Amino acid sequence: MITLRKSSERGFDDHGWGQSHFSFSFADYYDPAHMGVGTLRALMEDTIEPAGGFGTHPHRDMEIVTVVLAGELTHRDSMGNTGVLRAGDVQRMSAGTGVLHSEYNHAASTPVRMLQIWLLPRSRGIAPGYAQKHFADADRRGRLLPLVGEADGALSIHSDVTLYATRLEEGDAPLAHRIATGRRVYLHLIEGELEVNGVRLQGGDALTIESEDEVVLEGGRAAHALLFDLGAHP
Q1: 64 with 115, same domain?
Q2: Which of 53, 112, 120, 121 has its CA 20 to 30 A from that of 59?
Q3: pTM of the model
Q4: Which residues are annotated as a binding site for Fe cation?
């Protein structure tokens, strides 16, 4: 079964200093038909204008992945981590028993564009943790590059998920990903155009794929996509 969610159907909020598009129910946006897929609980596409950002706030018992697409994001947390994340950087924060953090754009003129992803942990009450890594665009071209999960080179995470990124252009060979029994795939197209299992997607569109043997990505035009291989709700 393949379910399409168009970009225009997502939730939206304008914070004044930035904007958020919500793929699933989050904060003041609530849609009972879109509460998550498997271990994927939330996916937000955020734009933070210069001098804007999320002030210090708490999290608990959630695995939070941030994928920076453009600009420079300053992160600070109660574990003592501080630094700037740039395009291509991926951050994994395990909230566990509790963590405070903030995210700001201190640039003079360049917005930050990022994806923030919430994933349900395998177990509650773990120790908070942090990791980040840079993944070059060139390494995403024409392949499914693991960003987070148990695959070699990926950031580890306390959740039943493997998150891949890919970039596909016209003329690139199709990519196929096998779906194991009992698992499902969520495909989010960040930008460009892409055909997935015969469905043509535009930037911001997404597919939930269940009870299928594989997912095939082809016909990319400046396509940048994330593929989530997800376990069931823990």
Answers
A1: yes
A2: 112
A3: 0.96
A4: 57, 59, 101, 103
